[in-house]
Specification:
single chain, 320 residues, Helicase, Ruva Protein, domain 3, two-stranded antiparallel sheet
């Protein structure tokens, strides 16, 4: 998936059995990767074709990976970037055009339109910005530069996708991190989770909105999504301290209401004993949110509180 947090979080992934950087040239590494692919069952012609163009590490991938800005923005600043008027307007247009499709997916998976629209919008601007890197090139570059078995494994999984006939090597594009399609799935996630909306054939998460959204919903369900439950909601909280707040301190709605938290009119109907955590991403003087069990599911998609809050906010804004 196209996200800084994924790459940053993988800095400590296990090293390859033989240190790729110490092995010498990039060409030697690619040759070793080809041998690993063959050992994993990738047909020789597929492995050869997939790796044929990889003569040097991709300099743009290295530039993006080495110059990731530290995440120092406040939530207010971050949300002002990602919840801009253009993204909301485009989301409303996409929702209007996709309402029957979204309704069918909600009926099938129990995932409401709001979270799907929020993820769809933040990941790829509703499919418009999927990345234009050759996926295996990006993954091999990261595997070599980071000496990472994770990215080498993903490169081999990408070759498996080609071997399955799900994507042609020459048109196999994604983000600089190797994330693919409208949902920005890593290759292993595609193989384990992507599904065709119509129920047959290879899932086309690049061009088919139905396949992309059904696969996204399937991911959330597999991660533990609970139907008819929100992920988070904005609340009013006048507190003198942020002590006891944060997603790890799960209490109940009644507990937080007794501390002075007020839910807004029109909020999702939930019982007082429903589990909730209070989030103050910018401290006591900033916005406040109650986070529910589905919030942790969104964080499985991207392990960032800001991201999870913004997907909810974008979905709400589109459907308002």
């Amino acid at each position: 998936m196209l996200r800084r947090t994924l790459i940053a979080g993988l800095a400590l992934t296990p090293a390859l059995p033989s240190a790729a950087r110490a092995a010498g040239t990039y060409s030697a590494f690619v040759q070793k990767l080809q041998g690993q692919a063959l050992a994993a069952g990738i047909p020789p012609n597929v492995a050869a074709q997939a790796l044929a163009s990889l003569t040097v590490p991709n300099p743009t991938v290295l530039k993006f990976d080495h110059h990731q800005a530290e995440f120092t923005e406040t939530y207010a600043t971050y949300s002002s970037h990602v919840l801009n008027a253009t993204r909301i307007k485009n989301g409303q247009a996409k929702y209007s055009a996709s309402t029957p499709l979204l309704s069918a997916i909600t009926s099938r998976f129990g995932v409401a339109a709001g979270p799907m629209l929020g993820i769809w919008g933040l990941e790829t601007n509703y499919g418009a910005d999927q990345g234009n890197f050759y996926v295996i090139d990006a993954l091999a570059t990261l595997a070599w530069d980071r000496n990472s078995s994770y990215f080498a494994h993903e490169a081999i999984k990408a070759m498996q996708i080609i071997a399955n006939g799900d994507a042609p090597a020459g048109q196999f594009s994604g983000s600089y991190a190797g994330a693919m399609g409208q949902p920005q799935f890593m290759p292993s996630v595609y193989l384990s989770t992507a599904i065709p909306f119509a129920g047959s054939g290879a899932p086309d998460i690049w061009h088919s909105d139905g396949d992309a959204l059904a696969s996204m919903a399937n991911y959330l369900v597999k991660a533990g999504w609970q139907p008819d439950q929100p992920s988070s909601e904005p609340v009013y909280a006048h507190l003198s301290s942020d002590a006891g707040t944060g997603r790890k301190n799960v209490q109940t709605i009644s507990y937080w209401e007794n501390r002075g938290v007020q839910r807004f009119p029109g909020a999702h109907s939930l019982p007082g004993d429903f589990p909730a955590a209070l989030l103050l991403p910018d401290g006591v003087n900033g916005q406040a949110f109650l986070a529910y069990p589905n919030f942790s599911v969104i964080r499985r998609y991207n392990p960032s509180d800001f991201y999870a809050l913004a997907t909810d906010a974008l979905g709400r804004a589109i459907l308002a």
